[in-house]
Each structure stands twice: as C-alpha cells, then as structure tokens.
Design a protein that fits this description.
There is one protein chain. The chain is an all-alpha fold. It folds into two domains: 183 residues, Up-down Bundle (Growth Hormone, Chain: A); 186 residues, MFS general substrate transporter like domains (Growth Hormone, Chain: A). Helix content is 76%, strand content 0%. It is built from 13 helices and no strands. Helix 1 runs antiparallel to helix 2 and helix 3 runs antiparallel to helix 6. The radius of gyration is 20 Å and the shape is globular. The two termini are 25 Å apart.
C-alpha cells in the first residue's frame, strides 16, 4: 500500500466532516456572484460581463496557488495550512461584502481564489491521511456532498438573500459559516506533517504521461464549456426568458436540487464505466446548450433544460475526482494541484470568453460556444479511454504487485 494512504486504524471522521463544511462554504463563496450578478454589477457601476470576471480572477489565482502551494508551504504542517486557508476565506467574505468599489471587490475575489487553489490541491491527499485506505472513497464522497449541497443552496439562497438584505448582506452571511468551519477543523483535524515531494520536474511533469495529459485536456475543456454558459444563467433568465423575481430563484433552486440528485446517482454510472460517464455527460450538456437557444424565451422548457444541466454538471466533478484517484494514486497532492490548476484556469477562461461573447453578440453566441467546448471535451475523453493508463504496460503509474489500490477498476477495460 502506498504511504500516501493512512495506515492507522483510527479514522478522523470529525475532520472529514469539518472539511466538508469548509467545502460547502468555499463553493458557496466561489459561486455566489452567479446569483447576484445583476445587483452586484449595478451597485459597483460595471457591466454584468465585468462583474462576471470576479469568477474569472478567482479562478486565475486558484491556478497560481495550486501550482505553487506545495513549494510555498514547504514543511508547514498541513493542519496549520488548512486552518490558515479557512481563515483567509472568512477575510475574503468580509472584503467583498464591504467593497466600496470594483477594485476592492476584485481584491476579495483574488483572496478566495488563493483559498480555492490551496484547499482543493490538498483535499484528496488530506482525505487519504484522515482515514484508512479502504475508507478513502467514502471520505471523498462526503467531500463531494458538501460541494453538491452548496450548489443546491448557494445560487437560490444567494438570490433570495440578495433580494432581502442586498448582495453585500448575502456575502456577509458566509463569514460565520467559515468561522464555524475553522473552529471545527481546529478541534478535529490531527497533526499532518508535510510529506516530501516525489514529483521530479514539478507538478507539470505529471503531464508527460499521455493518459494524464489527455484526461486533463478533456477535464479542462469540460469546465470551460460549462462555465462559459453557467456564469450568465441569471442574465439569460432575466433578459431572454423574462423570468420574474419569483421565477429566477426557483429555477436556480431546481438546478441545485437536480445537481444534488445527480451527485447521488453518478456513482452507479461510474461503476458501470468511468470513461463512458466522462464522455456521455458533456455530450448531453452540449445538446442542452443548443436546445436553450431556440427555447430560451419559454419559461417551462428552459427550466426543465437547466434542471437537466444542473443534474449533469454537478455530477461530473465526481467522475473527474474518480479519474484523479485512479491516475495519481501515488502523487495525490501533486495530481490534485494539477487538476485544480486545469479546472480553475478553464473556469476562468470560460467565464471570461462567455462574458465577452454575452456583452458583444448576445446569449446565443455564448451558448453555442459552450456546446462546442463540451463536444471537444467528450471527444478528448473518448480518445483517452483507449490510451494506456495506470496499471497498463508502459505507464509510470502502473500498480504495484498487481494489487488494486482504492479507486481503481483492476484490469477491466477503461471504457467498461
């Protein structure tokens, strides 16, 4: 068994749950602007496209952090590092909520980007150290439940709170949640000394493995396509669908609830075929993006399509984390940092390109671009399915002693 996994019999489930609350607060902080884009832009005196760049800049700094945190953190105990990141998340919420202008708002978004990059880079490796190897998949599933719950709650609750107490009040509500997560982690996380790095040539050296490179490219194309569209859902509902103040939060809630259901159901799909799942999801999402162009002015068809979008989009990260566990079993922290960099860079590019197209040519161009990127993601995932990967001859990630490690499918064909 790799020493990346916990060897003690004790499982720190309190620490797992504390980190899950942190995931919830982090995801809510990251995507709160999606549901508050219109009032936020009006208050700060900028266009909705510029306001959307708040997601783009947080993604950009998450990339920089994820690629450098192992080097910058050095020998800092990982418990201390996670606590520092959680405290910084609370500071970010305060900065955004009290921002007097666009520059300060973007500064707050930079801080949340640092937290995103650092926390997600460490999450998989931390799960491996909190519980025995056999329990790691369950710990990762619990982390993902925090992600899914935030997806359900953040957008509709943010929209509701924005109407009740303003967009600043909505961001301010995230601060006590981050404080509780900090206290819980302080009480439950064990000491976790920094492990020596085993990746020669830096994190990017992991891309020398062709299967890893193709998978990362597919993952990046998927998230870029997703956020080119999703970032601008609220303006689309208000301008094109003509949804009122009551309908918009309900549609956002439907997207979130569908996403939670998708997260619960995707495990069965992954067990039947990981790559089949990674190919099918972006194809279906591309079809939804195309269908929204002619059906956008009609509320009920649009609500149904966006609900299906939420089901697929929220389930997809579970598939990609499963792929990560299979591919980087012995390099969890480095692999996690690389995936965070790819995902956040793609989200930033998607939000930026989507905003440029939305402001310049209207929603149809944004949705068509999203569909094209999602189809590219499906194609790359399909190609990577037939590429020699972990456990197969010629791969540097081949499993040791012929034994499966957590998250692998043994010697089954990778599309099965």
């Amino acid at each position: 068994m790799s020493h990346a996994y916990a060897t003690a019999d004790r499982a720190y489930w309190g620490g797992v749950l504390a980190m899950t609350l942190c995931v919830f607060a982090l995801i809510a902080s990251e995507f709160m602007p999606v549901s508050l884009l219109t009032p936020l832009a009006a208050d700060l005196g900028v266009s909705e496209g510029l306001a959307g760049y708040g997601i783009a800049i947080s993604g950009a700094f998450a990339v920089l952090t994820s690629l450098s945190i192992s080097r910058l953190a050095g020998n800092i105990n990982r418990r201390t590092l996670l606590l520092m990141l959680t405290a910084l998340m609370a500071v970010s919420g305060l900065v955004v909520a009290l921002a007097p202008n666009y520059l300060v708002y973007m500064t707050g978004r930079v801080l949340i980007g640092v937290v995103i990059g650092g926390f997600w880079s460490l999450s998989a490796a931390t799960a491996m150290r909190l519980v025995p190897a056999a329990k790691v998949p369950r710990a990762l599933a619990i982390f993902n439940s925090g992600n899914a719950l935030a997806t359900v709650v953040a957008a509709p609750l943010g929209s509701y709170l924005g109407g009740m107490i303003g967009w600043r009040g909505a961001f301010l509500c995230l601060v006590p949640v981050a404080a509780v997560a900090f206290a819980w982690q302080w009480a439950c996380l064990p000491s976790m000394a920094a492990e020596s790095r085993r990746t020669h040539g830096g994190v990017l050296a992991l891309l020398r493995e062709r299967a890893a490179a193709l998978g990362m490219m597919a993952c990046g194309a998927f998230f870029m396509g997703q956020f080119a569209l999703f970032t601008y859902v609220r303006p689309f509902l208000e301008r094109v669908t003509r949804a009122g103040d009551t309908a918009v939060p309900l549609v956002l809630l439907a997207i979130g609830v569908s996403g939670l259901l998708g997260t619960l159901a995707v495990g069965a799909c992954i067990r039947r075929g990981l790559y089949r799942t990674l190919v099918s999801i972006p194809v279906l999402m591309a079809l939804i993006a195309l269908a929204l162009v002619p059906l956008g002015p009609h509320l009920w068809p649009t609500a149904a399509l966006l609900s299906a979008w939420g089901l697929l989009a929220t389930a997809a990260p579970v598939g990609w984390w499963s792929w990560l566990a299979r591919t980087f079993t012995d390099n969890a922290e480095a692999g996690g940092g690389l995936m965070v960099a790819v995902v956040q860079c793609s989200m930033a590019l998607g939000a930026a390109v989507g905003g440029l197209l939305f402001d310049s040519f209207g929603f149809a161009s944004t949705f068509l671009a999203s569909a094209g990127l999602l189809l590219v993601a499906a194609m790359l995932a399909y190609v990577s399915a037939s590429t020699p990967g972990p456990g197969q001859p010629g791969s540097p990630y081949r499993r040791e002693s012929g034994r499966d490690k957590p998250g692998s499918d043994g010697d089954k064909p990778y599309f099965m």
